[in-house]
Amino acid sequence: MIAPIRWQPCISHRPDEVEEFIATYFGRGDAKVLLLAGAGFDPRATSVAQLLRRHCKSLPDGMFIKEERPNPEAVLVDRANSNLELLRPCVQNSEVIEIDVFASDGAVVGGRSILRRLDEMDTAPYSDIIIDSSALSIGISFPLVKYILFRGQGTGQNVHLFASDWPALDHVIQPQLADRASNVHGFRKVTELYSSVSVARLWLPQLAPAGGQALQKIFDEVLPSDTCPILPFPSADPKLSDRLLAEYLPELESTWSVDTGNIIFADENDPLGLYRTILRIDAERRLAFEALGGSLLILSPLGSKMLAIGALMAALDRDLPVYYVEARGYDVDWKTAGDVDLTTSSIRHVWLDGTVYR
To answer: Is the dihedral angle over the CA atoms 1, 151, 54, 57 positive or is it negative?
Structure first.
């Protein structure tokens, strides 16, 4: 039996529709809103909050999350503090919480830490919760969205997911990788419920520039039976797919043994398209492998934040594992970053739950 698609239909707004939606919906003034957003060094951190400030009749309350990593560079700390000062005037009441991404022994604990802090919050008074994942890492944003979504399920509370994406910035912000890959906290592990049976593991890694080392760590961790890479096409950079194919040619031909027909092309600005593609693949494989031990899709969203939203929705809908490599820090080419045209930012909105679906 094929499971129903949770977000079919799905209320969402493209970048050219977002401002009008915010002005129309949040400009009425009858909603009590909580904004959950990252307060990091990323220039995308303030885009959604400032848009809300311009159009909300009643400013939201805000909880700003600072991801703390070992020995950060001074320039990153300064830029994060500057972003925080821009975020505070966008809300009525603000709380800043610091989340240690790593424990003292090097273990990745960011996902657990954010959920403990959310447990201490009373979100019931809010009619709408806005999650801005623009400046949040996967290890923080994915558990946060899942927690808020399931905590408010059935209450009529509206859950909105926003992301501001400047793909050119992803190319100049490179993570300093942890030693090994891990699953995102709160999502299924590869071995969970499958340790005693033979299951066909299909890995869907999202290809991103300079992501080969991270993807190899994930490959070694999940040991997939087959691999179907996700290639961003079309994308803002029309030559990006060609460069990625050239960059990952050794992995595609040798390490992962990928047939050219197994490459998934996903529109960089259409998270819902990727979401539905993943669900279709999952449904087809479940039927095909039902008598052979079963099938399990494993997601690894790197690069585009828009496509990461599609992967997140699929993981929530089908309880899929999500594997990544946490960043111990970041190397930023600030000279190149200064040349990025920030006016081309694209903000996407996905309405995950609430009265609109009742």
So the answer is: positive
Average pLDDT of span 300-317? 95
**Quick one: average pLDDT of 89-111?**
97
pLDDT score of 196 more than 50: no
Architecture of domain 11-165+338-357 in this structure? 3-Layer(aba) Sandwich (3.40)
Question: What are the extents of the domains in the chain?
Answer: 11-165+338-357, 179-325
Does 179-325 carry CATH code 3.40.50? yes
Confidence (pLDDT) at 146: 98
Can you give the pTM of this predicted structure? Answer: 0.95
